[in-house]
Amino acid sequence: MPRLAAFASALALSAAMAPAAWAEDITVGVSPGEHAEIMEEVARVAEPMGLNIEVVEFSDYVIPNTALADGDIQANSFQHRPYLENQIKDRGFDLVEIGTTITTPMGIYSDTLESLDALPDGARIGIPNDPTNGGRALLILQDLGLLTLEEGTGLVPTPLDITENPKGLEFLELDAAQLPRSLADTDASIINTNYALAAGLNPNEDTIATEKADSPYVNIIVVRKGDENQDWARKLVEAYHSPAVKAFIDEKYEGSVLTSW
């Protein structure tokens, strides 16, 4: 009996240690704000599944895809589809989407205006300087009736594609992360939600206008081509799409960040 008990105890110990012994370690790149906060919650959900996620924050939108393509990280979660498509086109990255995450409507913020109706002629507007988010900002202004863009520019128009600008708006193109600090120097700035949240802005209370809900800019999880069928990739998406992560997002962001599943 003692030998049987010892054997049973050894089996139990082995079973308890199995998940840790077979756990996979990956590094996921994110941008600051909600992408980082959500991925930390995903990491907690993924750990019992045998997936250890190290979350690494990048301060801009350029480095995460370079780091992924170079093999410095295994996945990233910070960008929407149009941005990835533009990066692949411009830089030749061999990257693929493995799952959707969240939608974060861009907002128009101002330190001096209480409504968009108060926007003066010749107003100075801050927009992101990367093609997809800058184009997204201009499309928001077009949807709001403040300007008209040349037909056929798709999702990446630039200020050069503006055909009608009745208020004579001027555009200050800045790195997306710098836009919250630009509010002291602009009449209004169009800011991605993650950078707004990181700067202490409340997308539900501090905006003077918000992107429409039917935006095509759903965010995605991206890996190197060839890794999309890896077991860790499946677990990463499964953990992200879990009820626990959805509940975390709904409770923490109260509608300013929307889940895609």
TrEMBL record:
Broad class of the protein's primary localization: membrane
Domain of life: Bacteria
GO cellular component: membrane
UniProt subcellular location: Membrane
Transmembrane segments: none
Record keywords: Lipoprotein, Membrane, Palmitate, Signal
Topology versus the membrane: Lipid-anchor
InterPro entries hit by this protein: Lipoprotein_NlpA (IPR004872)
Keyword Lipoprotein: yes
Signal sequence, renumbered to the chain: 1-23
SUPFAM superfamilies in the record: Periplasmic binding protein-like II
Keyword S-adenosyl-L-methionine set for record: no
Pfam families: Lipoprotein_9
Family statement drawn from the similarity comment of this UniProt entry: Belongs to the NlpA lipoprotein family.
PANTHER family hit by this protein: D-METHIONINE-BINDING LIPOPROTEIN METQ, D-METHIONINE-BINDING LIPOPROTEIN METQ-RELATED
UniProt xrefs under NCBIfam families: MetQ/NlpA family lipoprotein (TIGR00363)
Name of this chain's protein: MetQ/NlpA family lipoprotein
